[in-house]
Amino acid sequence: MSFSTKVKDELVRHTGEGRHCKIAEVAAIINMCGKVREVDGKLSLKVQSENPAVARKYFTILKKTFNINVEILIRRNRQLKKNYVYSVFITEHKDTMKVLKATHIIREQNGRLEINHHIDSLIVASTCCKRAYIRGAFIAGGSLSDPEKTYHLEFVNVHEVHSIDLVKLINSFELDAKMIQRKKYFVVYLKEGRQIVDLLNITEAHIALMELENLRILKEMRNNVNRMVNCETANISKTVHAAVKQYDDIMYIDETIGIHQLAESLEAVAKLRVENRDASLKELGAMLDPPVGKSGVNHRLRKISAIADRLRGQQWRA
After folding, report:
1. For the chain, give me the number of helices (H) and strands (E)?
2. In the chain, domain spans
3. Which element (helix H / strand E) includes 245?
4. 67-94 pLDDT, tens per residue?
């Protein structure tokens, strides 16, 4: 079972909200994956999903909230032969009108009925209804990637105005949702782990939230360890490279003019570096008499390197 499915299974089991919250959740489901059909002036409503839990949740809310007759059709998906598609129908015109008016998805304009895919402010007037709406939107058209791999949560539907309103609704909880168009669909998404956790909290998917938080902690610890190891490896590589160059410079000076020609302080450091090729600058400094700090040893080795470079330049010109 995917992580996204786990979240939806938890959300569809959510109970206890009042009638106004149930209406907000129904409005979200219809706006995300519902279709209104008109034949001879009569309206019918269909909501379709490949998740049986989603169809069952929608069916249950309709029966309890509106006490209307609802039909369910199950058929095999022609494109994905292993999957079934669950369609929930309201076929009676008066029942369809009852639901669409309650959810403010239909309104009268100049004597005509018009479908309204905006999120009506009356539907999400209270915080609990906002939570219910976002919960319904995720149940109907949301998905969440495997947090072991990446952080990405999205809501997909075909109505641009609804997606714009959904962004505003989510961001009213101080999140930073964004919207893009993907072919004929509009996608509202969050890509930051902390914000996805907050959205799960808003929808009250607390079990999924804890699982995601545990995965985030493990992932962050793993990344921190990897960064520390990479940093340490880089430092070791840099130290080894510097030590090899210092040794080569000293041997070149010795072969050219002899290290005894160096100043006494430089000669002492040069001999210690040749004898202790793996020692750090701090360790070399402690071996000197009197001891010298890390910066002092580095300064002397830089002088030795400069002398070696000058000698190489002279050799090249000759």
Report:
1. 11, 10
2. 3-204, 232-317
3. helix 206-256
4. 888 888 888 776 656 678 889 999 999 9
Q: Which residues contact 60 (CB under 8 A, 6 or more apart)?
A: none
Q: Give the single-character DSSP code of 71.
A: E
* Residue whose tokens read 């279709």: 35
Rounded to the nearest 10 degrees, what angle do helices 127-141 and 3-12 cross at? 130
Cα–Cα dist 286/293, whole Å: 8
Domain 3-204 listed as CATH 3.40.50.360 = no
High-pLDDT (> 70) share of the chain, %: 96
Asked which of 120-124, 127-131, 241-245 is least confident by mean pLDDT, the reply is 241-245
Alpha-carbon distances, residue 224 vs 86, 227, 232, 264 (angstroms): 45, 5, 12, 45
Question: What pLDDT band is residue 39 in, cutting at 50, 70 and 90?
Answer: confident
CB 200 within 8 A of CB 192: no
